[in-house]
Amino acid sequence: MNVRLPLCLVIPLVLGACTFGVPVGERDGVKPTKTASTKKSKLGNPSSYVVHGKRYYVLDSAEGFVQRGIASWYGIKFHGRKTSSGETYNMHDMTAAHKTLPLPVYVHVKNLDNGRSAVVRVNDRGPFISGRIIDLSYAAAKKLGVKGPGTANVEISVVQKGQTRPSSVVRTIPLTEQAAKDVPLFIQMGSFSSQVNASKLMRVLHAANESSASISKLETENGLFYRVRVGPLFDIDEANAIVQRLKGKGFQTARIVVQE
User: Fold this and answer.
1) Which of 7, 36, 111, 163 has the most CB atoms less than 10 A away?
2) 3-state secondary structure the chain
3) Closest Cα partner for 104 from 112, 95, 117, 92?
4) Residue 183: its pLDDT value, please?
5) What per-residue confidence (pLDDT) applies to 162?
6) What are the boundaries of each domain within the chain?
7) Which residues in the chain land under pLDDT 50?
């Protein structure tokens, strides 16, 4: 990892006929695993934070989260240092770092290149390299066969406390590689010709602990509009997870859009 945190749509233009929130049933061949109860750490769970000029939005809940991408690993350089959650990093423990999952949380990691799988405890932030979704500890990388090549294609899915296997999850069909890297995504909650109405929605969102929402203006041939949005985001899986969370709070108008 290169960075450690301090303690303390017009989508069809890109996706064609792709859709979001495609249900996925339980996967075969997952070894039963029972996890301990977890409680959010006092450190490492801000509503959002900025690294290298990019803002990341920490999820309130990890329920139903699944993601595919590249895993890497970090070892002796960080051994003995504090993680973002305040725990001491031990390269020989089965742990990992993730940019936006609440800390700590258990995730099932499947190496799609060799079929190996394991459950790790996410207690740190990172990796902050484009395309990488999780940084494994030395022990986890060794068990999953990632240590040698350095990176691997993986799928991660959250294991809730007391579960014997990952629950059925909601997966997203990813954006094209070009779009995922270069096109900022937003969660749009509403667009209004009246700034007063936009401000009302903002107050409701803030009351629901969605403090990262903001209002942006858009000039069109039909006049000025005030859009209530969360973002920008650069990972379609995380954007989809935020939409599911918002809809769970009753904000049924939440949808993913791309920056004009």
Assistant:
1) 111
2) CCCCCCCCCCCHHHHCCCCCCEEECCCCCCCCCCCCCCCCCCCCCCCEEEECCEEEECCCCCCCCEEEEEEEEECHHHCCCECCCCCECCCCCCEEECCCCCCCEEEEEEECCCCCEEEEEEEECCCCCCCEEEEEEHHHHHHHCCCCCCCEEEEEEEECCCCCCCCCEEECCCCCHHHHHHCCEEEEEEEECCHHHHHHHHHHHHHCCCCCCEEEEEEECCEEEEEEEEEEECCHHHHHHHHHHHHHCCCCCCEEEECC
3) 95
4) 65
5) 59
6) 21-173, 178-258
7) 6-34, 164, 166-181
Residues 6+ apart with CB under 8 A from 35: 106, 119, 159, 160, 161, 162, 163
pLDDT at residue 258, as a whole number: 82
Q: Which amino acid is at 174?
A: P
Question: Residue 207 corresponds to which tokens in the numbers above?
Answer: 């009351």
Q: What CATH code would you report for 21-173?
A: 2.40.40.10
Q: Check residue 45 and give its pLDDT.
A: 92
Q: Which CATH superfamily is domain 178-258 in?
A: Sporulation related repeat (3.30.70.1070)
Structure tokens at 20: 């979001």
Give residue for tokens 């595919």: 68
Supply the pLDDT for residue 176.
Answer: 39
The pairing of beta strand 66-74 with beta strand 152-159: antiparallel
The CB density around residue 166, as the number of other CB atoms within 10 Å, is 25
Q: What is the pLDDT of residue 4?
A: 53
